[in-house]
Amino acid sequence: MKNAETQHTNEQGEHGFVTNQRQSKRQSKRQPATTIHDLAFTDDIALFESNFDTAQTQLITTTKWADKVGLQVNIKKTQALTNQNTNNKSMQINGEDIQ
C-alpha cells in the first residue's frame, strides 16, 4: 500500500497536509513548511489532505494503485475523519460510502 501511495504522490505532485506554513508568501529557510502525505505502518495507511475533494481524489487514486499491485482496500475498515464542514458529503470507494 505504501508503494501505491508513493507512486501516486510522485506522479501527482502537490498532495498532502501542509504544516508550519507561513502567513506570508515568502518561505523561511530556517522553518520551512512541511507536507505530510501519509502515515504508513505494515498494512495500514493514513492519507492526509487539506480539503474534501482532493482527499476523495487521493483515495480513489490510492485504491487504483493498490489494485494494480494486487492489494484491495477493505471498505468496511476504511474511515474518514475531518475537522471541516463537508456539507453531508461522504467519501466513497468504488461508489460505496465509507464511514
* End-to-end CA span: 20 Å
Counting DSSP E segments of at least 2 residues, the number of strands comes to 6
- Overall geometry: globular
Question: From the alpha-carbon coordinates, what is the Rg to the nearest angstrom?
Answer: 15 Å
Order of strands across the main sheet: 1-2
Q: Which segments are poorly predicted (pLDDT under 50) over 5 or more consecutive residues? A: 4-10
- The helix-strand sequence is HEEEEHEE
Describe the largest sheet: 2 strands, antiparallel
User: Would you tell me the structural class of the helices and strands?
Assistant: alpha+beta
Quickly count the helices.
Answer: 2
- How much strand content do the residues show? 15-25%
Overall pLDDT confidence: 73
What is the count of structural domains?
A: 1
Proportion in helices: 25-40%
Protein name: Reverse transcriptase domain-containing protein
